[in-house]
């Protein structure tokens, strides 16, 4: 009798455990979903002010000119996330591939006021404003409303590339006279770098398309006027 | 016993076949589908993996009227590159195409013939000799 009394609560406990083990199975893709809910990391070398008080680098103030001759500063992207890259119009190697991948993202978020695009030329001598305007229009981007193709003095551009953690430098031996990485850089409204993607790699751009909505979710509900899908 | 002998025979035959295949493969060059591989490494970034081009920025090669209208100029276009406006299927394109001094005449031939036959294109193929002759127009033949 005493033995039975001992086992009964144990049996109950076992039952509870079994239920607990079964419960996660009731959620669709349990583990994957919780990973997708996690905020995107902040990239760059952090400054630790005090234990538990860490600052991640932010894109500093800049001022560049876009294809519509308008000044583009961080204020242009206030309250938005944006995707930055570095290219040049006569680049024969990776740029067309990059831009066709960027077009995938642009087409998906066209007219979504929460998302901006910023393509910097690293060949300001050749890529004047008319050249940038022509390039954008040929690519199917009629105005600079959402996708800015920008130029600035060369030093400014190359310093900016460093701040976006993108490799770019002049190289007279390379086709087109410059080498640069095809990275797409995802920047949040606080100007933190939240993602880096290889813009010539379709799979990496798939990852961007998957992570961008996660960043947008951080910003709260979309304004009623947006139609992202 | 008979079974053991036949198994032995089968193994030996298989071994001989394998050895034969290994010897045979040495008879073939690595140049099968060279045109396709050259296209992927030298052209696809701008003209697209399916020759589709890129909007109004990069001219298409699939279904391009330029290939038939300017067939004889194509070897020099690849050798020397292209600068200035060109019209393809009624659209004016104005990008810089780099020169390809690194390709041999026969590589240019393979590349052109791949493009002439890919993505529904039905262009007349080139011989290496013809390409070398056409390359004389831009002093671009390397005779290889």
Write out key terms for the chains shown.
heterodimer, A: 229 residues, alpha+beta, Glutaredoxin, seven-stranded mixed β-sheet, 21% strand, B: 144 residues, mainly alpha, Cytochrome Bc1 Complex, Chain D, domain 2
Protein topology:
The complex is a heterodimer of chains A (229) and B (144).
Chain A: H1 2-22, H2 30-37, E1 47-50, E2 53-55, E3 64-66, E4 71-72, E5 81-87, H3 95-109, E6 115-121, H4 129-139, E7 147-151, H5 154-163, E8 168-170, E9 178-180, E10 183-187, E11 193-198, H6 202-218
Parallel strand pairs in A: 5-6, 6-7
Antiparallel strand pairs in A: 1-2, 3-4, 3-7, 5-10, 8-9, 10-11
Chain B: H1 2-25, H2 34-42, H3 44-47, H4 65-69, H5 74-80, E1 86-88, E2 91-93, H6 105-117, H7 128-135
Antiparallel strand pairs in B: 1-2
CATH evolutionary superfamily of chain A: Glutaredoxin
Q: What is the oligomeric state here?
A: heterodimer
Biggest chain-to-chain interface with counts: A-B, 19 and 13 residues
Q: Tell me, what's the shape of chain B?
A: elongated
CATH class of the largest domain in chain B: Mainly Alpha
Number of helices of chain A: 6
How would a textbook summarize the main sheet of chain B? 2 strands, antiparallel
The amount of beta strand of chain A, in percent, is: 15-25%
Give the name of the CATH architecture of chain A.
3-Layer(aba) Sandwich
The percentage of residues in β strands of chain B lies in under 5%
Model regions low in confidence, pLDDT < 50 over at least 5 residues of chain B: none
What strand line-up does the widest sheet of chain A have?
4-3-7-6-5-10-11
The structural domain count of chain A equals 1
CATH superfamily name of the largest domain in chain B? Cytochrome c-like domain
CATH topology of the largest domain in chain B: Cytochrome Bc1 Complex, Chain D, domain 2
Helix share of residues of chain A? 25-40%
Structural class designation of chain A: alpha+beta
What coarse outline of chain A follows from CA principal-axis ratios? globular
Give the rounded overall mean pLDDT of chain A.
84
Number of individual domains of chain B: 2
Strand order of the largest sheet of chain B: 1-2
